[in-house]
Amino acid sequence: MNFTVVGPGAIGSLWASYLKDAGHHISLWSRQTANQIVIKRDHCLANTFTNNDPSSVMNADVILVTLKAPIVEQVLTQMKSYINSDAIIVLMHNGMGTAEAIKTHLPDNPLLLATTTHGAYRPSSDLVSHTGRGKTLLGAANQKGQQCEFLVEVLNHALADVAWHHNIDQALWNKLAINCAINPLTAIHQIRNGELAQPQYHAQLTAIVSEVCAVINAQGFKAEENNLRQIIDEVILATSQNFSSMEQDIAHQRPSEIDFITGYVVKCAHQHNIAVPANQALYNAVKQIEQRW
Ligand code: PAF
Q1: From the CB of 256, is ligand 1 less than 6 Å away?
Q2: Of 103, 175, 222, 287, which one is the catalytic site residue?
Q3: Where is the Ketopantoate reductase C-terminal domain (predicted)?
Q4: What spacing in Å lies between the alpha carbon of 101 and ligand 1's midpoint?
Q5: DSSP 135
Q6: Residue 142 and residue 44 in one domain
């Protein structure tokens, strides 16, 4: 199949590399200006990809979007005239809230949402390291997307484990809860994920999870506080040596995904008249840091 990977950061480069090795035609769309990009994954042979080539985008069966949430709408709008209306759009990023805008800009395309727990690290623009195997969940965000379950087999062949989720928003909320707990705290304090296991963060984590849980339930999805807290503690432990993506964004003075993580929860909470002071405080703190630059 023909894929265009939009935003070849760590996860995008990982997928581009595995999909190419599985025999697919892969082009990239990135902020780099070169018309060819070389990516080498771990000890495999390096692959060369065409970059920013409109005709490759026009021929793409799948547009795999691995951009960070804040720039998804902007970049897809710029590419819109090249995207075939049959092309399956897959959004794979931390946070929630981009799908509505994409449905408006590209109303005829099948739209899928994905979440992955694969670990990837990009020490430089031509290297990607697969740091931890994980699972990818894929599900439909519109009617046409429901016809695209076959993509699970294609993606699974390239980079297992991939599964279809009939209620992908539930999976995205579960992931959002993890990001709401880990990302802002590690970003504000500039610490590794594992530091959050220290007793000084216990009460704050409990408050964050309790508020997010209330919002998830009000949105009509399932969440149970103790269960969610246990999952978050497990992720903190499993990723204890990692710096979260938001910690890295703040460390490098890049705009973070706060509007699509904590900000999304705060927005939904307001719609349901739910008080979320712990999350609101974290949102304000990250915004304040960003405004200082
Ligand atoms: O955003 C991240 O860094 C990751 O989603 C997670 C799970 C918080 C681990 O660092």
Answers
A1: no
A2: 175
A3: 167-290
A4: 24
A5: -
A6: yes
